[in-house]
Amino acid sequence: MSSTNMTGNKSVVIAGGGIAGLSAGIALVKQGYQVEVYEKRPMLGGKWSSWRDADGDWIETGLHVFFGAYDEIFTLMRDLGVYDHILWKNHVMTYTLSKGDRFEFRTRKLPSPFHLLPAALENKFFSWREKLTLIGALYPMLFGSPAYYAEQDNQTYKQWNDMMGIDQRMFSKMFIPMTLALKFLAADRISARIVLEVIGIFLRQNNASRIGFLRGSPQQHLIGPMADFITSHGGRIHADSKVERIEMSADGTRVAALHIRAGTAEPQPVTADHFLMALPIHNLKRLIPESLKSQPYFEGLTRLNGVPVLTVHLWTDKQVSHIDNCLFSPDGVIPVYADMANTTPEYRRPGDTDGANMAGRGSRFQFVVAPADELMSLSDEEIVARVWANVCDVFPDASANARIIKSAVVRVPQSVYGPLPGLDKYRVPQASPVSNLFLAGGYTIQKFYDSMEGACRSGNRAANALIARDCGLAWHPTQ
Predict the structure, then answer these.
(1) CATH T-level fold of 3-42+239-305+419-470
(2) Do 449 and 183 meet the contact criterion of CB atoms below 8 Å apart?
(3) Which residues pair with 116 in a beta bridge?
(4) Angle, nearest 10°, between helix axes 19-30 and 72-80?
């Protein structure tokens, strides 16, 4: 039976043109559905959007990296012919510290978890006493069951760390940047569950923590190809089109239409057989009809809130960092960052040199600035000044004669959902109780949360749930 016959050319409206919505769209057009994607912003990509500024330089919404633990997004990229656009870096995690101090965790090609043991044993930044405090925590990190991880959602990662007796210096220098990189939340706010799940993946899989960068912008090397696949298979994509309201059927069992405002025009109802919402949690909450909010599935979602995110881009006239990888820093407000002039060849400016001779190259930094709650109200100039002070602190010699030639600050007041303790139980399956409504996003059930992999997985699962329900087949949420 052909996919077209299976679906009967049924129509699907997808709200949200990020990776989750586009992944769902790709899966659905492959099965013969008539797909329409609506995105409220002028550009696609959502949390992974990118655009050129007036100088022709690419600006990204956030720092986008791939981890070796990912799976489904790599399958998608291979299908699109862009997997080779990932540039994999050496399997080492570099921490840049105040006054120019450094330490590294460099993995070896050994069976997991032994691939990390040499990194721990050879590390001279931490004393043996400090390293030995990790021993008691390794077992639950490595062998924690799903039930164990679920139980840890009742406390913060800081509380779990204190309970396990991990040395406070090791905690602050090594683990705090990881929590901020994961969800932009401090260790005394983020649920222990999400941190332990991610650390467990990194410990159990040899290449899980290896990092890759795209050779250029997400728009050119990921988002654009995803959109092109949809349109080349008969789907349509509408940018600058905001969902204003969900209209329910008279009996309240189905979505009748989405009311969508294109540009400045009046909202118009858009009908379809099925509707798939791939929106940030704050936008989804705004749209949930009052008639649905009393249902446990939707009521739980109303308890989730977005986290503010700041990304700062800095261009300098001289090269400050020579490290071709993601960098972590526990000291200041730049927990995770990269010099994109090293990691991302297409971001180098004309005239920048390559290879061993890099004397003519300036740095092109991209920083996650977190936690951002108290920084959002500052001016761009104040934020850039704080970031540059951190750079000068961790690269005191290289920054001495360097100056900023350009900067950009990207503010996202509400981005990923905030996994505070006790909230994981409100994440939901992608198939909603409404017969033709499906959800995709980090707040739906899958183990990679709001990462690129998590977005792709949630989109795939939403599409699969839709297809299964359409064909009268059983479907169960999976990680």
Answers:
(1) FAD/NAD(P)-binding domain (3.50.50)
(2) yes
(3) none
(4) 60
